[in-house]
Amino acid sequence: MPSPLRGAAAALCHEGSAESSSEVISCDSADWARTGLEEAPGFGGGRVVSFLRQFGFPVWQRSRVRLPKERLMAAFREGLSRGKTLVDLFYDVVSPYSWLGFEVLCRYRSIWNIELRLRPAFLGGIMKETGNQPPAMVPKRASYMSKDIPRMAKYYQVPLQSPKDFFETVIKKGSLPAMRFVSAVDLAQPQYLEPVSRELWMRIWCRDEDILQPESILAAAEKAGVPLEQAKKLLEMSTTPEVKNRLKTITDEALKYGAFGLPSVVAHVNGEPQLLFGSDRLELLASILGEKWLGPMPASAKL
After folding, report:
1. What residues have CB less than 8 Å from 52, skipping those under 6 apart?
2. Which of the residues in the chain have pLDDT under 70?
3. How confident is the model at residue 203, as a pLDDT?
4. What is the torsional sign of CA 168, 170, 176, 179?
5. pLDDT number for residue 135
6. Backbone CA torsion sign across 66, 71, 73, 74
7. CA–CA dist 253, 58 (Å, integer)
8. Which of 70, 88, 77 is nearest to 13 (CA)?
9. What is the pLDDT, as a whole number, of residue 70?
10. Hey, what's the torsion of the CAs at 193, 181, 119, 296, to 10 degrees?
């Protein structure tokens, strides 16, 4: 499939990530003719459904997608013009290694020819569904992590340090309210997704602060630049079935790709999803993408 069409898929998947009650249009109706898609090489309107399904776009009843028509057209035009490879990052703010992968991929977003899509998921759900258990529950791995986290933080240049009571903070309390809030941000105010996620990591993995209580979540949102009234609405929204289902859907999507922990990176290369686990597989990701690995802090990201 031509790379411009992969770029279109990236735009489509990004635009279609939030469910909408807006107009539902038919993939093979006359509306497609008005998008100009027939002008794309080797891509007639009749191939739309299979194209969308190939890239994981929600399609049902053989020919229908839920997406406002105007956003659909804009997404295709944007994607056709940029031809970037879609890279999904599934993460949870309770995971320190997710933070490392998150920061490095954000640095490379303007260097590699990729469309980075942040996918907030629930680590607890992934562990339960796969029968996995937190590394810290295995004594030898816990001992290793206590040394590995400071090393990795220094190498990746991320201000990460373990909470004083690791078991209570990370294993016992978890992150569900925080990740539901992040999911609400992703749905309603996606421009704040990156800074809100980062600030929640800063709270738990830098300053050893709570991320579960409403006042803690609002404080993180404020520091991330979300206006207080908007943050309160997002907090209310985070308890709704829509947001709960959203978090579960993305978690299930990670599981579908084969995830057993986080971070999980999925690179969509030539229409094939390539799953990589952990923050130490980014050099391999570069190879898969045909890009150059410039270390965890590439020069252009320091400017």
Report:
1. 9, 12, 27, 59, 65
2. 1-82, 300-303
3. 98
4. positive
5. 85
6. negative
7. 11
8. 88
9. 56
10. 60
Evaluate the omega torsion of the peptide bond into residue 263 and state whether it is cis, within 30 degrees of 0: yes
The pLDDT value recorded for residue 283 is 97
**Cα(120)–Cα(118) distance, integer angstroms:** 6
Strand order in the sheet with 272-277: 114-120, 85-91, 264-269, 272-277
Residue by residue, what is the 3-state secondary structure of the chain? Answer: CCHHHHHHHHHHHHHCCCCCCCCEEECCCHHHHHHCHHHCCCCCHHHHHHHHHHCCCCEECCCEEECCHHHHHHHHHHHHHHCCEEEEEEECCCCHHHHHHHHHHHHHCCCCCEEEEEEECCHHHHHHHHCCCCHHHCHHHHHHHHHHHHHHHHHHCCCCCCCCCHHHHHHHCCCHHHHHHHHHHHHHCHHHHHHHHHHHHHHHHCCCCCCCCHHHHHHHHHHCCCCHHHHHHHHHHCCCHHHHHHHHHHHHHHHHCCCCCCCEEEEEECCEEEEEECCCCHHHHHHHHCCCCCCCCCHHHHC
- So what's the pLDDT on residue 14? 46
